[in-house]
Write a structure and sequence with these properties.
Elements lengths: L1 H11 L17 E2 L9 E2 L3 E7 L6 H16 L2 E7 L5 H11 L5 E5 L2 H7 L12 H6 L2 H4 L17 E6 L2 E5 H7 L10 H10 L2 E5 L2 E9 L5 H10 L17 H15 L12 H9 L3 E6 L2 H6 L5 H4 E3 L11 E2 L1 E6 L7 H11 L2 H11 L2 E2 L2 H4 L2 H4 L2 H9 L3 E2 L7 H16 L5 H19 L1
Parallel strand pairs: 3-4, 3-5, 9-10, 12-15
Antiparallel strand pairs: 1-2, 5-13, 6-13, 6-14, 7-10, 7-11, 8-9
Helix pairs in contact: 1-3, 2-15, 9-10, 19-20
Length: 445
Amino acid sequence: MKKFFALFLVVAMVLSFVACTPTEEPTPTQEPAVEGTKEPVDTNVTIRFWQAGGDTADAQATMKSLVEAFTAETGIKVDYQTYPWGANPHTSFQTAIVGGDVADLLIVGSPFDYGLALEGQVAPLDEYISEETKADLQGVFASEGVFHGEGELDGKFISMPLYGGTRTIYYNKAIFDAAGVAYPDTSWTMEEFLENSKKLTGEFEIGGEKKTVYGFATSAKYASQYLPFIWNFGGEILTQDNSAAAVNSEEWKAGVEYFLQFFEEGVTPPGSEAMDLAEQLAMFMDDQVAMMCATVDYVTEILKNEGWDAKLGVGAMPNNNGIASSYVGADVFIIPAIAKYPAQAAMLLEYLLRTDSQVKYAQVVGFTPAVKSAMEDPSIANDPVQLAFANALEDGKYYAKVSCSSDITTILRENIQSLLAGNMTLDEYAADAEARINQALAEAE
């Protein structure tokens, strides 16, 4: 833990935050107390709300309209700001917490919420959020918002999802048709997935033009690209209590061996050891890639282009003995422990988890709603793309939630790229990753 907040102190010397002061205030009013609180909530305030991300598919404009509607309904003014992912928003938020001047409500990427909770820097949400809202959360998201660890936060909600997302298979129907391969509308076995990837690799005529096509675009740069295959074999990053690395196991190595075959068989594009997802997407849309694995917001972007409503298919992840793992993530709300207006922030949080708010956000941004009631809305329930991603959530799993998660990500990326480069054997790769992860865990204590 020492290493985690030592970074805060360094960054705090460089960056600072300035709170905005409202020029007008609403007529002083008081609303009934938020569930679990004893005092009425003062609505004659301005709260600050910072969102990490918000830089895709009109997300910022959509959130701004929801915030304005919240103000019109409650009288609570909101100073809303977004911090694009490319600007390292988590570092900025860490700096603000150390400086004692942070927004009342934050949206962060999971598992950053866990890192803050381990340091006691988030407020428990149970006293603020209604039981109705908690019950409406989709199971895979709700369970991940509960903290498990030492201290007063154990067993309590530390975060609530704005939306969720998993990754599943996209495919180019034109390439499948040219290769004579059936669409992956149902889950293939791992063996079928690899064999069909080979069949989809080669020279094909697509739209009257001859194309060199690769069956499956993937990348060793991202844990989300290879972890589902490892999970299918029963591999895990850490032991069940998160106390030690679990990567030096036969299950983990079997999953890595499977992933390596895509590179060895030439079914993934050259340079995939470190290929960006944006480059994969460009190749996919140029009919050079038959399949890729990514989040639902990519569908939103692809369908903005002419002709893709007929060419794009969304399928299912491959399975091993019936388990079709997918990599789940969420952008989540947290209320910092030092928030000035936690009750008012919770009112905004609840507003953004309402069915109508969730439907509006999902329709524009494309991610999966966090609440079950929004999933039942006809605009989502009848959307085959949303249904495909909802089905992928059934075997969805989250990344390791420890304070040194980012360090573990770096270790796994470096080691698998070294393995692909031929600088390590599989056993050396696993043993070295185990040792380095255990060292990172020890340093984080």
